[in-house]
Amino acid sequence: MWEYEHAVDTAATAPAVWAVWSDVMTWPAWNAGVEKVDIDGPFAPGTRFRMTPPGEEAIEMRLADVVPHELFTDVMDAGDFVVTTVHRLQPNPAGGTRVVYRTEITGPAAAEVGPQLGPAITADFPEVLAALVRHAEASERKD
């Protein structure tokens, strides 16, 4: 198994961050690693979506868990390995919200694939989370 976690704190509330996350079609507006997203239904467990990184082929994923204002989990199943990313919101005791992204690569090929694929997937997490919280904080100020 390969794993990585990154977290940031924001003054934005969990509902403000959730509003950004659950509006999948706007992901390219704040996530530079997403050129396009197509989703086959509601932001709910079992829904499949395709996320296209800039200049690359679309990656097919499935929403495994969705708990509004708390977390969602997406899964990319490549057969001999599975990439699971949990996007979690936690109350920050100092106020605001802690946003956590955790990725795990499991399966028979995880030991071989994980050390190369994992860092490629997660390298932009600091920038993505920073952009996410900026977007959530800005949208909250507008309300």
TrEMBL record:
InterPro entries in the record: Polyketide_cyclase/dehydratase, START-like_dom_sf
Superkingdom of the organism of origin: Bacteria
Protein name, UniProt field: SRPBCC family protein
Organism lineage: Bacteria, Bacillati, Actinomycetota, Actinomycetes, Micromonosporales
